[in-house]
Amino acid sequence: MMNSKSVKVVNLTKKYRNFKAVDNISFELEGDGAIAYLGQNGAGKTTTFKMMTGLINPTDGKVFIEGIDVKKERTRALMRIGALIETPEPYAALTVREAVGLAGELKGIKKKDVLNHLETFGSRVKIPDLDRKVGTLSRGQRARVIFVAAFLGNPDIIFLDEPTNGMDPAERKIIREVILEWKKDHMIVMSSHLLQEVTDTCEDVLFINNGKLLLKDTTRNIESKFNSKSLKVDFLTSVNPDELKEKLGGFASSVEPQSEKSVIIYFNGELEARAKILKLVQTAGDVISFAEYGSSLEEAFVNLIEEKDQTE
Ligand SMILES: Nc1ncnc2c1ncn2[C@@H]1O[C@H](COP(=O)(O)OP(=O)(O)OP(=O)(O)O)[C@@H](O)[C@H]1O
Ligand SMILES: [Mg+2]
Asked: Are residues 208 and 237 in the same domain?
């Protein structure tokens, strides 16, 4: 039998005056797992999330959640989902308990179950004191509260728009673990600007640019298509990137300063080249660290955007 978890987006468009924030996007997602929704600032990610979760109406096109038309049967469709989407904070005057309670009420979840969720899930992601006013929380603390609210009622599908935005590394790690665990029997659609995070958690990627869908593929395929890699090299003392580039000759496609004493070296990813680079950087100074830098998804992302800009 077909897995019931599905999101179908058909010719989705959102216009603001004459500007298309989302421009005729179609895709289908099915089954358990995590999917990344990526794009530059202003690409249209949040706008798509808002339409998929019924926060705003599309100018054109449709969204189906598990086959249910969000426009026609909004409430029934929204019962299947949970969402974390950047919106102006409407709950500032409420306490954490009241705010999450209200979110639960809107979904018809019993008070007792909301409290239970706050105790178990909430303590796992370390949400602040339940009696604190939402308006007095720090950005990261607030992010945790809305993260917890997104998982209320065990929804089939969870939309997370930059879930770790504003969080510290320890907290991001917990969020990552929760996502890895939940994606086993839920569908999670998330956006993030931290591509390493995406590589670690999502098996599929959708890339959007200027409101249009550029690419939909598995994370693994995208990484192998753009097999360029980067290395971060730290020196004991300052280093001149231009001289280093000269020394590396054809082995490096570019050398970019990261700080006075460190550089990022882009190369073709081949191990032979990496071995040569390791030897040659040591002729430029005392190397204190030599390590892979960033994810190749990062490279793929930048390449895609650049290719697109050139063809337009
Ligand atoms: N209410 C609105 N009125 C006018 N323009 C809007 C509105 N909401 C969004 N836009 C525009 O639509 C485009 C897409 O915005 P959106 O918030 O979807 O981008 P995003 O991909 O989420 O970016 P970011 O990574 O910065 O969060 C932007 O150019 C934005 O300025
Ligand atoms: Mg956004």
From this structure: no
In a domain, 1, yes or no: no
Percentage above 90 pLDDT, the chain: 68
CATH of the domain at 198: 3.40.50.300
What six digits make up the tokens of 149?
Answer: 């609210």
198, part of any domain? yes
pTM of the shown model = 0.81
Residue numbers of the domain that contains 239: 227-311
Cβ neighbours for 271, distance < 8 A, ≥ 6 positions apart? none
Number of H helices, E strands in the chain: 11, 14
41 lines ligand 1 (CB under 6 A): yes
The count of structural domains within the chain is 2
Q: How far is the CA of 284 from the CAs of 162, 163, 238, 269, 295, in angstroms?
A: 40, 41, 10, 21, 25
pLDDT reading at 1 higher than 60: no
Nearest CA to ligand 1 atom 27: 41
In this structure, the answer to whether residues 86 and 112 fall within a common structural domain is: yes
Query: Which one of 224, 251, 279 terminates a domain?
Result: 224
pLDDT at 224 over 90: no
Ligand 1, from 15, 38, 46: best to mutate by most atoms within 8 Å of Cβ? 46
Helix, strand or coil, per DSSP, at residue 13: strand
The whole-chain average pLDDT of the chain stands at 90
pLDDT digits (tens, 9 = 90+) for 115-167: 999 999 998 898 888 999 999 998 888 889 989 999 999 999 999 999 998 88
Ligand 1 atom 16: residue of nearest CA? 44
